[in-house]
Structure prediction request, 225 residues.
Amino acid sequence: QKEVEQNSGPLSVPEGAIASLNCTYSDRGSQSFFWYRQYSGKSPELIMSIYSNGDKEDGRFTAQLNKASQYVSLLIRDSQPSDSATYLCAVQGGYQKVTFGIGTKLQVIP
Amino acid sequence: DTEVTQTPKHLVMGMTNKKSLKCEQHMGHRAMYWYKQKAKKPPELMFVYSYEKLSINESVPSRFSPECPNSSLLNLHLHALQPEDSALYLCASSPRDGAPSYEQYFGPGTRLTVT
Prediction:
């Protein structure tokens, strides 16, 4: 069983729509959860971190965490073509160790 | 300054060469990481330095040798690499050494090609 699972996509959404990206994880003891954005050929960029159940909003981004269901998601409102990238879910799975999912490729269609 | 720098940006080396990758951060972060990323795959953790001491080695072959000269610098020495080692090598740093935050900030990476 993979430690962090994501649908690799691509997920295609029209410009202005809400993009919903999902991630599940296997380690019930995980405490820290992150979303990174990675453009093709570039390095990952941290866009959201979340540590407690519920929603966390930052601009057009909302991260949602449900520890009971071992589920974390990222919503991108008013999606723009510049949001087209691969979104990596990352979970702290042990001391100092963060495990990344395979990433979901998002395509925002103008 | 929230920047992690890496040099070189690109590196081509033969299997008998010795080279080094360099990483630097001036954010006062106390943990630094090396990752390897192949195309269409997630970053894979190689090494973690915490307060300048190696704290995690993810069973990486000995042809990769990390070094942390001080809290701002992290090197990765390469020797006798194989073509399958060709990848994007990412350095990252994080401000805290411990839960709840392991927010990692990545450098731009070094694209390594082994011929």
Observations:
- The interface with chain A takes residues 31, 41-43, 45, 48, 50, 55-56, 88, 90, 97-109 of chain B (CB under 8 Å).
